[in-house]
Structure formats: C-alpha cells, structure tokens
Amino acid sequence: MQKNLRWKLIMILVLMVVCIYYFISPKEKGAPFLSRLSLGLDLKGGIHLVLRVVTDDALNQELRQDSDRIAQELRSKNIPYAVSQKGNGYSVELTGIDPSRESEARTYLETTYNRKYSVRSSFAEGKTNFSLTLTPSYIRDTRESTVRQALETIRRRVDALGVSEPSLQISGIGGGDVQDRIIVELPGVDDPDRVKGLIENTAQLELRLVKKENGSLPGGGGFPSIEAALQANGGSIPDDYSVLPYREDRGDQSQLGYLVVSKIPVITGKDLKTARSGTDRNGNPAVNFFLTSDGANLFSRATEQHIGEILAIVLDNAVSSAPIIRSRIESEGIIEGHFTLQQSEDLALLLRSGALPASLQIEQDQRVGASLGNDSIRSGVMASIIGFGLVVLIMVVYYKHSGLNAIWCLMGNLIVLLGFMGAVGGTLTLPGIAGVILTIGMAVDSNILIFERIREELRSGKTIRAAIDTGFGKVFWTILDTHVTTLVSALFLFQFGTGPVKGFAVTLTVGLLANMFTAVYVSHRLFEMMLGNRRVEALSI
Amino acid sequence: MELFKQISIDWLSKKWWFFGFSWLLIVLGGIGYITNHGLSYGIDFTGGTVVYLKFKQKPDLDLIRKSLKPESTSPPLIQGYGNPSDNTVQVRLQTVIEAGKGINSGRTELIALLLKAFDPEHVASTQIDFNNTGADAVYKDLLSSDPDGLRNQNKTTGEMDSFYRNLAQSMINYRDKTGGGIVGSLDEFRSVPGVSNSVISRLKQNFYAGPFAIKGTDTIGAVVGSDLRRRAELAVGLSFLGMLVYVGFRFKPIYGVAAVVALFHDLAITIGLFALTRMEVSLTVIAALLTLVGYSMNDTIVVFDRVRENLRLLRKESLLRILNVSINQTFARTIMSSLTTFISVLSLFVFGGAVLHGFSFALVVGILIGTYSSIAIASPIVEWWYRSIEQKSKGKAAQF
Fold first, then answer.
1. Which of A337, A364, A391 corresponds to the end of one domain?
2. Domain extents for chain B?
3. Residues A232 and A294 in one domain
4. How far B392 CA sits from the closest chain A CA (Å)?
5. CA B213 from chain center: how many Å?
C-alpha cells in the first residue's frame, strides 16, 4: 500500500516536472526561456484585420474574359452577332445570332462552356439570343479558390515584411455559403498604416499599349478629360479599348489626364520574375522589373512590333507611367511614378509577391499599441498575484493543513495548465489571464466540496481514514457534474468567440480539465501521504 | 475554523421573500433598460470606432468634445479610461460607415481634428511626433545623420545599422514601458542608457513630443458587428439548451427546468444591472455571461446532487424537508467556494485594468446572484412542481 503510494507520488512529480519543462524551456535552440507561450495581440501590441475578399471581382473578371473570348471566336467562325457582354448577375449575354447559324453557335458554346455555364437560348425579333449562366458549383469553387489565393498572396507579403509570428486564417463571419473572410493578426508591428497598405493593395500590374491614333502626344501625355478622349475617337471608344486615368508630370506640377489603352495586356504581373526598387535616369525612386523567359518572349516580340508607340504601365487600373517604346525590350523594364523611396520599395515588394485575385474590404481594423499591451500585462499579473494570495490566505486560515494541501493542488493545476499551453504553443491573451484567475477561484471549489464532506463524515463518527475515503468517493460525481456544465459553456464560448475570447475559453477549459486530476487524484494522494502509516488522532481540517 | 457548523434554516418557507427580492431586482433592471433605451452595446456589436488616447497632462475633456463636431447627429462619446492618473481617454464614434468611404475614414478624421485642437503649431509641420511613431522612423533618421559619428570611428555599416536600430528600439521601449506610451519631452531620453546628447539634439531637429499618444484604435464595420451579435445570442441560447439537456439527463427533467429558470433569473438580473449602470456590453461581457451560465449551474448541481443522495437516505421525509436539509448540508461549501471565486474575480475587477472592467463586473455580480439563486430559486421550483403533482394525483411523487 505504502509502496504503491510512493510510486503514485513519483508519477505525479514526474508529470509536474514535464509540465514545468514545457512551460519554461525555450521553443527552439537559441530562443529565450519561456518562449513557447506566445503573447496575444492584446498584450504584445500589433494589428488585427478582418478582410472580406470581394470574390465577385474574380467572377466578374472571368465573365468579362469569357464574353470577349466568345466574341473573338464567333468572329473567327464568321458568325455574326450583335452584342456579347457580361449580363446582370453571373451570366454572359450573347444577342443577335441569325437563326440559320444558331445550331453552329450552340454547338460551339455547349462544347466549350458546358462545364462552367448552363446555356439557355431564346428567340426574339427574328434573332436568337443566348444566355450563359455560371453554375452554382462553379461559382462556389471560384469563390473558395479566390479566397485561398488571396490568403497565399497576403502570406507572401507578410513574410516579405518580416513580421514575426503572423497569424492568417480564413473565417466565415457573415454566414454566407463560402468563408470569405481572412483574419490577419500581426503582433508587434511598428508601422501599422504601411503594413495595412501593403496587405490591401491589389497590385495588379499590366503593360498595355496606348491606342496608336492617340499616342502622338509628347511625353505620353493624355487627354484632359474622359469627354475629350471620347471626342478624339469619334464619340465612342472601340470595344477593345478602355479609358484609364493617368497622373502625368509636367515639370513641377502633375495633373490628372486620361489615356485610351488596349484592353488586352501585353504582359501582366504574372510574367514577372522579380522586381526591385531602384532609380530612374533622373535619380528618382522607381521600380525595376525582370520578366520570366516566357514573359520576355512575349514582351520582346510586342515591343519590336510597336516601336514608336506608347506603352502604358497600368497598376490597379490607373496608368502609372507611359513611356514611348524606342527599341525592342528583352526582359526587363522600369516603372516610373512619383514615388518616395518607401513607396518604390513597397511596390517592388507587392510585385514580387503577386497580385491579389480580388479586391479586399476591411471590416475590422484593430491596433493595439505596445504601451496598451504593457498596461494589460501589468494589471493582469497584479490581479493574478493578489487573487491567488487571497485564495491561499482563506484556504489556509479556514482549513489549516488541509487548506495547504489544496494550495499544492492549485499550484499543480496551474503548472499543468501552463505546461499544456507551452506544449501546444498556445497564445496568452488578457481574457486568457482572466481565465487563469477564474480557474484559481473555481479550482479550490472541488477541494472545498471534499473538505466539507470530510468534516461531515468526521462529525458522524467515522475514523479519519474512512472519512477521507468516503469524502473523496461521494463527492466525485458532484465534481464531475459541476465540471461538465462549465465545460459545456466554455465549449460554446470557444465556438462563438474570436481571438481574445477564445483565449479565455481555452485557459478555462484546460484549467478545469487539469483540475479534475489535481483536485481529485493528487489531493487524495496528498492526504494519504499526510496520514502515512501512523495512527492519526486528529486531522487538521 | 468552522463558521457554518450544522445550521438548520428553513429556506423554503422564505421563498416568497426570495421571489419578492428577485422580482424587485428584475423590475429595477427592466426600468433601467427602458429609461436608458436598452443596453449600451460596445462597438464590437454596433460597428464604429474607438480610439484610446493618453495625454501628457490631465486631458481637457471639454476641449476634446468641442473639437470633435458636437453638432453631428451621433456625437462622439468621450470618457476617462482606467485610472484617472493615467490621463487616458476613450473616444467612441458610432458612425455608420458611408458607402464608398473607407472603414478607417472616421478614425483618420478624428485624429486630424484632435491634432488641430491640441497641437495647432505642428499641424503643418514636417517634424514627426515621437509619441505617435514607430522605431523604424527613428532608426532611419539616426542612421542617415549618424549623430554619434560612428562613420569616423571606422565602424562597418552593419555595426552602425545595428547600433542605431537598437538605440531607436530602446528609446521606443522607454516610451512604452516607463512612460506608459508617452514622453513629455525628448530630453527624457537622456535617462536611457546609450543615448548621447548629440543623439538628442539631432532628434530635436526632426522630431517633437506631441501632447497625446494614440495607444490603440479599433474600427469595426457594421457587418462584423451584427454577425458577432447573432453568434453571441446563438452561443448563449445553445449553452442554455446544453445545460437543460445535461441536467435533465443526469437528474429528472424538472430539475433541468428549475436549473435553467434559475439561469434565466441570474442573467436577467446581471443584464439588468448593465442596463441600469449603462455599462458597455462588449464581446468579453458576453464571454463573462456564458461563464456565469456554467458557474450558476455548478452551485445548483451541488445542491441537487445532495438532494438525490438524501432522497435515498431519508425515504420517510417530505421533499420539502429533504430540500432544506440538502441546502443546509451544502451551505458551508456554497459559501466558501463562492467566496474564493468571488475573491478572485474581485481582484480582477479592482486590479485587472480597464480592458476587463465590464467582464469582471459581470462575474462579480453574477457569482453573487448565481449563489443566491441556487438556494432561493431552483429548489423552490422543484418543490412547487412536485407539490402540485401531489395535489393532483394525491400520491407520493417525489422520486428521482
């Protein structure tokens, strides 16, 4: 019996040592002690963003591309049509097909697009119209992959910034059928405005040709207004072109102009191998880019064909510069703008990490200054120490030696809690600390239940040993019940909570589970040890 | 020490007193709810912007109010935050974000207005406010100017880089840790080890110590807010259901119902108190309420467990007496364990800082109410139920 007890006590001690090891040992070689447990954003300071990926952007882009492709294909097949355009909602509308060519057009559409669209036709005013609607499953898949791509792009950007321990996750706030929110947590960020700019910038780079007939303006200057651009092209812009804003430079002053540029890019950001911040001929900050071999092939062919024309460097649907092509360009180029050094460095970073597949909408932007986090740590630690001290005082005064026993169990509970958090690399938040404090208060509840029961059994005339054993035995189910109910509410809390609140649910849950072990099992063994083999006359309780 | 040695109080005979007291609290909360136009939700639920500002001197709340467009339809809410000696102010804008405008426009505008009111001389200045910048800007400035003349001491660029980076970081750390986020003047950095006079005089060219520091901001869009609110309601509702099922399963259904009625009672009173005091209901307060659901259940279960045991031991006794005996037997435990939990959340309330004020307030109140209700509400309901069945069937019904 006694030997058995010794083994049990050794096991408990080993477990405690393991937990202490996991709590204080460094995370990896060279890391400081206590580094396994990281501090949450609310304690360390940093930025927390909830971004909605506007997945409709990706769908609309695809619809526009498909309608252009259909138009092109029909032209090459010599099938006349009136309009091919993106419809309202998720469809491409094709109108004005001659009925005699209907079956031909239908065969083409159905063989090429039947996986992606459901094709419907209607007949009006002697012409056939087709309506291609994206299938729900395709819409969902595209949305999901757009969100995943956006996440990967943001991850590359954050990594390039060198933020330590960033956390990025996809979440389903809003309750749509697709989880389209990305939660970004960047602890300890120095310049949150810059970081936010780097994350939300789409960085869609396209090199497109300026319409030849409009391209004779010196220095690549544009039209003063959209109306002027329309007028110069006889009232309407051809299908293949669009008007884009352009901030042009005229000596000291810059003003907004407009350029008519081709819709079809020569190359896009996808053809970039890398980009670097550098300077232009005048020594102003600019971005040098280098193309992949495929991109270089396309680019050198296009520049050779269009010597003397103007190339628009389009960044997020605005022209950032419009140089004249003077000779064939192989594999590198330069983006001039009106950048500061920081801006050119950031643009290079964005181009290296690739464009976002859709724009982002910021739904939450929380910034915690390091000093605010510092205040929270200080008050959290203060509250823990005072709470713990007072509980110790009450227990020892009221239950004497047995109370001390409960305090050992409480410390064991905290060690297991911290050890577990360290082992899984948990994050400690301010509500998490509150969870620990609450655990301190609630953990001794089990001890109190047991002690009061032992007192009762002693009053009813049982021997000390018997009283302790019945005390522990009878109270076990009550303790289980009380723990289960609190665990159930902690579970729902975890399910619903975000960030810090989740931290609270985690420490509370782990603390309660550890308590089932320390307050019932460890405490019982401590009593046995206290009694030993001796005959005991009185129990200090 | 033993304070509650074998007490015998007839709790159930006092049930009308208890019910009266509970209704009084609930009605008071209800009045508070009506007169204060419902609860004051935090921006996590309504959407909006909160900015925490720490001032060098005692902040002039009226000047803040005057500078922030008081004529607008939803004027900003301005109040001291935390300890008055912290000179910290919380400014809350409950703006609905206009279409097309970025979510951050409210915050940017607010900061610009405050700068104009409190620091007019620096509005057009090219100098950087040291109290609102990061280590990076300081490091870059020092590296480019090299005030300590490392270049002349034949240091490598790497050495210079790390020297000034560390220097900038230690000044920022001084500001955040010793100064609580703000420094009165750049001269304070003389007490930071490694900072020379030439560094300070260089800093004074490009930096100044502004009158306030932005310690933190939080901007939440209305969509996220309403979503969180929906999820909070769902979580509270589901946890009620979970309790009902668990207790109903472990005991008899009526015990589950009684326990859940007691839960409703606890939450109604706690929420009523939030309405009465106009304290903000934020996400962490909901977390506290959910914790209460579990805690209040704890106490009720301890009593019910004892009732179950006594029903077996004291078969001849009436249910009324068994309930009374059970409450009395567990009374010492109820008081002691509520006391320890209460003490720990009280220390959280007093010392835990302003961030957790609402959270710990809910727990402090809830623990008192939760302890009271397991004695005063849950048990009388069980007794009333079996008495009314007994009257109908004239038989012995009080069984588990």
1. A364
2. 12-42+221-393, 43-123, 128-215
3. yes
4. 32
5. 23
| CATH of the domain spanning B12-42+221-393, picked from 1.20.1640.10, 2.160.10.10, 3.40.50.1820, 1.10.10.10 | 1.20.1640.10
The interface pTM score, or ipTM, of the predicted complex is 0.86
Same domain, A249 and A287: yes
- Give contacts of A 23-82 with B, CB under 8 A: 42, 45, 50, 52
- Over residues B261-273, mean pLDDT: 93
Domain boundary among A136, A167, A191: A136
In this structure, which amino acid lies at residue A221? G
CB neighbours of residue A402 within 10 Å: 24
pLDDT interval class at B297 (50, 70, 90): confident
| A400 conformational bin, left if phi > 0, alpha if psi -120 to 50, beta if neither | left
pTM, two decimal places: 0.82
A17 touches chain B (CB under 8 A): no
Token pair, residue B266, equals 């606890």
What are the structure tokens assigned to A419, written together? Answer: 């050890």
Out of A438, A445, A504, name the one closest to residue B337 (CB).
A445
Domain coverage including residue A435: 2-44+369-531
Which chain B residues have a beta carbon less than 8 Å from that of A50? Answer: 224
Closest C-alpha among A355, A61, A400 to residue A198: A355
- DSSP assignment of B306-331 equals HHHHHHHH-TTS-HHHHHHHHHHHHH
Closest partner CB to A366 (pick from B218, B235, B342): B218
B64 closest CA partner among B6, B108, B116, B141: B116
Instruction: Report the C-alpha gap between A134 and A113 in whole angstroms.
Output: 10
Residue B30, pLDDT score: 95
- Any bridge partners for residue A256, and if so which? A247
